[in-house]
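Exam review. A common question shows you a sequence with its structure tokens and asks you to describe the fold in words. Practice with the pair below. Do the first one on your own.
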Amino acid sequence: MSVSFVVPALALALLLPVPLVAQTSPPFDPLTRAEIKALRQGVERCWNTAKLSRAALEADIVVAVSLRPDGTVIEDSIALIKSRSGDDEAVAQAYDAAHRALLGCGKTGLPVPLDEYATWRELEMSFGNSGRTK
């Protein structure tokens, strides 16, 4: 799978860091396009859709994940936040694939700027069929 605006495959889109407290403006700078691309590619290399049903390939889901300061994934933090399409079984399959991708690539650390921990310590990631960044 690759991510671009024209690839007709499942895409992974980084949405926004999740603030711990509601604020009018975040206390940190957002990730740059290059940092988002690196993070997206870091998860994509573990995103395996070979065994997913057609319905699961078409599901759009949003997953929350928390990271440690070294960029490794906190395993029990991964959670399905919402699904925008797909039946329950398709969403469950898509979530399982996203979960495996985050754990697989996140065990050694995702490619994030380590000096900007506040920016990416809690993320929402969209795994979906849309093929474009949200």
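Now try the second one, then compare your answer with the model answer below.
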Amino acid sequence: MEITALDKYTRAISSASLSRNLSMTTAIGISSSLVTLHLITSGSAPKLAISVVIISTFLYVSLSAGSTIDQFKVWIADDKEQDASNMEQPRNQTPFTLWKTVYGLCFFGMAATQLLTVWV
């Protein structure tokens, strides 16, 4: 199958949008964690409200990032079918499960320590 310039351009746009989605999700999660950390250390915010924000942030980041990582996996599989190149081998060996696990554990750790700080 002949790969046209339009196909390459379309795939580049798809890659950029997936990267942007994951970057924005990470930025929102870290920003929210920093704000809640500031509120926790100031001691003026209600415990229940802060707890809800922490849990909501964790759920949003986990679901959004997990979905984006799954979309990366599908995009790479589709790209592999269309284009056999020197980059094919490293892309086929991308550890998506490990990526999702480490990403989730990082945000779970932030949420768990913040909840412990709020309630203990």
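Model answer, second protein: The mean pLDDT is 85. The CA atoms of residues 43 and 118 lie 9 Å apart. Full marks require stating both points clearly.
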